[in-house]
What we know:
By secondary structure, the protein is of the alpha/beta class. The chain has 3 domains: 5-113 and 245-322, FAD/NAD(P)-binding domain (3-Layer(bba) Sandwich); 116-242, FAD/NAD(P)-binding domain, CATH 3.50.50.60; 333-417, 2-Layer Sandwich (Enolase-like, domain 1). The chain is 21% helix and 30% strand. The chain is built from 10 helices and 28 strands. It has a 5-stranded parallel β-sheet, with helices on one face. α1 packs parallel to α8 (294-308). It is globular and about 65 Å long.
Amino acid sequence: MVAPKRLTVVGNGMVGHHFLARLIDEGHARDWHVTTFCEEPRLAYDRTNLSAYFSGTTAAELSLVKPGQYSEAGISVHLGDKVVAIDRRARTVTSWRGHTIGYDKLVFATGAASLVPTVAGSRAPGCFPYRTLADLDAIRSHATAARVGVVVGGDLPGLEAASALQQLGLRVHVVEAASRLLPRLLDDAGGALLRARIEARGVAVQTGKTTFAVLTDDDDCAAGLRFSDGSLLSADLVVFANGVHARDELARAGGLLVGAYGGIVIDERCRTSDPDIFAIGDCALFGDRGFELVQPGYEMAEVAVDVIAGADGRRFGGGAGGGDAGVRVRVLGVEVASFGDAFATTARARVISFFDGSTAGVYKKLVLSDDGERLLGGVLVGDAGGYERLRGLVVGGGGMPEHPEELILPLRVGGREAA
């Protein structure tokens, strides 16, 4: 009897788990001897909803792995064990606990780490990254003696962190170096409306602010921020949520091709420069582009499963499915969605928009081809209803209505807006 081939997955975050769950659901796990390494002391959990940890949701409730899901599928798990070396010639990986595991196919799902700026004071007590449940435990402990928290970063992780600090009872500030919040997802109008909605919830926002240094008190603990324009902001807890860097150090040490600014280079089938090694999620670089959103990572995981299982046809990055980084989220109670060519970069693109600056606060924008026959992308703030249909039109190229504005403009009946 021929022994099953060996499949090793390095990393058990959201994308690594999605890969394994897909492998199980499609019946491929039984064809391999599967091993996964998880650096953290717990299996995959929902990083996109970390603030819920401060409102009573437990670590167990955030878990994405069903009880017995891996063991029943015959998957070997090394929990709290980090892979520290790869030997491509011997086709093995070695962990810091001393386990050496062979592989026929290897998947890197090592994710990304928080990018803590190298400014003065950034390592002082009272400064924290925002990435793991361990980070949140440290933040909660420090917050018991804090009154004001500042989050450096106005992207999705930063706004999630701001929500968490609010739930801890702190006065919260968000500072963002770009001119608007969610700069990679929203245009100026969308960012302005989101800012107004968030400030109405008691979160102070400053944009166009670059952190120059962390201020410290007599005990060398964080006491606020100094910005490059010389202005100051007092705070006794600082959270850095202003970006991540790909965890590509293993691949780099193993001689795989990595990008000039980080990330493991993959092709449309999620293969690295070694065809027996794959990379998925935040650690991967496709077409000189990294992906910090979970949906593209899930799509990579699904492509990698298909390729490893011997299927031919599925590709990553083929249009909106892998390249548009479409996302729908709720941040501080405000619905936000962005998809496709949200910034109308396509030549001769047409834009249809609707803005309601009233208490409801809604902004919707569609980007169309020059002939109006194709939907290229869009932005939704305050009301993301219809996102799935709209993104579906981008992905699948479905037929557009005769009047595209009907997709976003409210229907008025007798002078009143109809639902």
